[in-house]
């Protein structure tokens, strides 16, 4: 029998009750002008979890993930209702400082997008904006971040070379390292491997497993096998609605909603 979002959300809370809640999304609706893209989304996201967002093209996955750092508001016609609490504070409150949110919540995109600068300059960009000038401190941040992104050994002898000279998979790890350099709490990943070859994809997947020790990760993916391999919880979106949200094993083995079953068995999408 189909369950309501609230029932599913409560169950997921039970399963992760020993964990801190990083995000609590309540009754989130979002419109692009007249067109509604998200409908009454309710979802709790746990600390140190990898949370996968799946669903067919146009179902609202990217829109949802971009609400979590309020990047979606860069589209001027966007309007939202409901609440997203991050570590207990509603990020839609007028007094909430979006700059603080963006230092806590890093983002990695579908296409690797390093700056047209050296590998070193890519990593120190954020820390410099935050006022860090000391060369030794910056050097240490570069090493730590590149090690965290499993890239240090490959690039440590050519930090002054342009990041554009790296492979696509390495560029994506530069972007992850750039994100780690600001010491985020959460990393949002919007289809981070869809432009990469299988070997680079496997490296990023392995990296996600390492990163979850220290960060909470929310990843949009078209690839259901990827969601099954790397995530703790999975949310299935369809037409802007959160159809089902559960621990990944349960969602893929015994989906509670016929629409989830149809999607994961390849009947559409
Ligand atoms: N900037 C925008 N302006 C107007 N409508 C938009 C904008 N971005 C997305 N939408 C609409 O919002 C809905 C959800 O789009 P979104 O990109 O979030 O879906 P998605 O699941 O991430 O798709 P895909 O897997 O193809 O990337 C779609 O109907 C889309 O046309």
TrEMBL record:
* Record keywords: ATP-binding, Nucleotide-binding, Transport
What's an example GO cellular component term for this entry? membrane
Q: Name one GO biological process term.
A: phosphate ion transmembrane transport
- Pfam families recorded for this chain? ABC_tran
The source's domain of life comes to Bacteria
Q: Which residues form the signal peptide?
A: none
CDD domains associated with the record: ABC_PstB_phosphate_transporter
| InterPro entries xref list | AAA+_ATPase, ABC_transporter-like_ATP-bd, ABC_transporter-like_CS, P-loop_NTPase, PstB-like
Question: Which GO terms of the molecular function aspect are on file?
Answer: ATP binding; ATP hydrolysis activity; phosphate transmembrane transporter activity
What range(s) does the ABC transporter domain occupy? 23-264
Show the Gene3D superfamilies listed in the entry: P-loop containing nucleotide triphosphate hydrolases
Q: Which PANTHER family match?
A: ABC TRANSPORTER I FAMILY MEMBER 17
- Protein name (database record): Phosphate ABC transporter ATP-binding protein
Species for this entry: Pontibacillus yanchengensis Y32
């Amino acid at each position: 029998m189909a369950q309501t979002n609230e029932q599913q959300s409560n169950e997921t809370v039970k399963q992760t009750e020993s964990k801190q809640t990083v995000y609590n999304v309540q009754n989130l609706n979002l419109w692009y002008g007249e067109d509604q893209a998200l409908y009454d989304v309710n979802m709790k996201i746990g600390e140190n979890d990898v949370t996968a967002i799946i669903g067919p093209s146009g179902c609202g996955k990217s829109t949802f993930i971009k609400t979590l750092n309020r990047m979606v508001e860069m589209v001027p016609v966007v309007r939202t209702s409901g609440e997203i609490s991050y570590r207990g504070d509603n990020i839609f409150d007028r007094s909430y400082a979006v700059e603080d949110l963006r230092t806590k919540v890093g983002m990695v995109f579908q296409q690797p997008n390093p700056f047209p600068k050296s590998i070193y300059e890519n990593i120190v960009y954020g820390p410099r904006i935050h006022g860090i000038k000391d060369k030794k401190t910056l050097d240490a941040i570069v090493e730590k971040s590149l090690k965290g992104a499993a890239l240090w050994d490959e690039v440590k002898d050519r930090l002054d070379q342009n990041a554009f000279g790296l492979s696509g998979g390495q560029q994506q790890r530069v972007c992850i390292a750039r994100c780690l350099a600001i010491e985020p709490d959460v990393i949002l990943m919007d289809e981070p491997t869809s432009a990469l070859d299988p070997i680079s994809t496997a490296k990023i997947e392995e990296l996600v497993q390492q990163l979850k020790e220290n960060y909470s990760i929310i990843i949009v993916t078209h690839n259901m096998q990827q969601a099954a391999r790397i995530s703790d919880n999975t949310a299935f979106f369809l037409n802007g609605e959160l159809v089902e949200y559960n621990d990944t094993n349960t969602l893929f083995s015994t989906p509670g909603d016929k629409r989830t079953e149809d999607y994961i068995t390849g009947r559409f999408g």
